[in-house]
Amino acid sequence: MKYSNILLGICLLSGSLCSCNKFLEESPKSITPVDAYFQSVSQAESAINYLYGKGTGPGRFYNINGLYDGTNSFTLDNLSGLANNTVAQDPSIRHFASLTQTVGNASNYLGAIWSSFYSSIASANTIIDKVTASTSIAEGAKAPLLATARFYRAVDYYYLVRIFGGVPLILAPYTSLENLYAPRASVDSVYASIVEDLNWAIDKGGLADKPMGSNGNRISKGSAEVVLAEVYLTMAGYPLQKGAESYTKALQTAQKLIQSTGGYALFASDGNSTAFDKLRLTSYDQGSAYLYFIEYNGNIQSSGFPEYTLPNSFPVPIPNSDLKVQYTLMTTPWTPSNTLLSMYDSTNDIRRHNRQFYHNSFSYINKSGSLTTIKIPTLPFRWYDSTAIFETAASSKYIDVYRMADVYLIAAEAANALGQDPTPYLDPILSRAYVHKPSIPTSQQARRDLILAERFRELAMEGHFWFDLVRTRLYPDVGAGHTVSFSALVGHDNGRGQKFQQKDLLMPIPSTELQRNPALKPQNPGYEQ
């Protein structure tokens, strides 16, 4: 590779605004040099907006990357065996589903994930470096800018370390050829950096203490606190197994959110809307329950998730009706597995009632004035948007990543692990989810099983399945009366006839990254070539 190409790559890694002005004697007048760009809050906010986008980082991870393939979070749900994608076109996704992923057949897919998060990290590093050094931005105005960049850097590393294990820990922009080939840091070191960034954002970031939607769709203190609480919960489990110390921190962090006066609250049922209707309705997208979400706007970049709520066999046009699906295609890259559906009591669990979390029929009044019902497979209803489906083919529905239900379930799991009564945190989840609230068991293990089962029931479609399986090393087994117990993940059937192996707990480092950076070796266990 020519020296100029190497230097150009370094400049690009330093941030999308970099001009490589050390390489050129004179910067193109259409490009603002990065050092000259961070001269005002508005300029810095423009750079921050890149982190909120859907091209890199968590925005890309939860964004649809192909109609049939869905999102990266779908792929991990599919890997868990608790959701299915039978229409995927990318062969890698089918390999994940059958636990046959290798370096050879999965590197392109995983390489895109790796590059996406590191691109976001590079941008965050540039923002942190340049905003900190800026002499024209007031110190008070710097804090929330730095907090947002640190939040995204922490979240980026949180996904990377859970997917790949130890990864290079790059905390400053590249400005030279030195240290270009960074080795993998230990898992413990990566988590320490994540915790440091999130605590900085919470304690020093000057972030508003309110739900994200009440904060103009910007990261808030609650956004950082919910991620930090879950990070501590993950650190308490596998692979770090820090136990009581991290469970205590997870509980304390979750308690701060629950006890906050900032307006955070679970959605409640009222009038004609259940709490779970509100999770679906776009009019509640900026509501009290949401701590971190991916924003969509039907007039700019619409959400394609409503296309996943009806099967491709759905009639177009609908018989004896003026209704017609406006999307070119409906398809099903995320469908609940039989194991997941069997966890719900379809009578007592409101989430399993038709047109709450899921639906299995479509009813309409035909031209003759009669009610007509079309039966469909059980599909997600959380993403159903009738206006987009039958009128505009453009949805503005946000996709939630973290909400207050996460916080209560984190607190319940941590409290129970510490031998404390989880009832104050578990009861609000159960009270709104069931017609007749189930009793909370007296034994610690039975309570743990109930809490973990509620995570699968309550947080379905939100990208938690695989990460929960890996951090607990437990897989759900559904018995009579929809009771759920748990057994070892490794060696458990995935519902498709294959058994999870130790190697499946991490994904292989993409071969393209190993070729670029030999310091990443050795490959993750089980994927050596």
From TrEMBL:
Belongs to the SusD family. Residues 359-527 form the RagB/SusD domain. It is found in: Cell outer membrane. Keywords: Cell outer membrane, Membrane, Signal. The lineage of its organism: Bacteria, Pseudomonadati, Bacteroidota, Chitinophagia, Chitinophagales. It comes from Arachidicoccus ginsenosidivorans. One of its GO terms (cellular component) is cell outer membrane. This is RagB/SusD family nutrient uptake outer membrane protein. It comes from the Bacteria. Residues 84-233 form the SusD-like N-terminal domain.
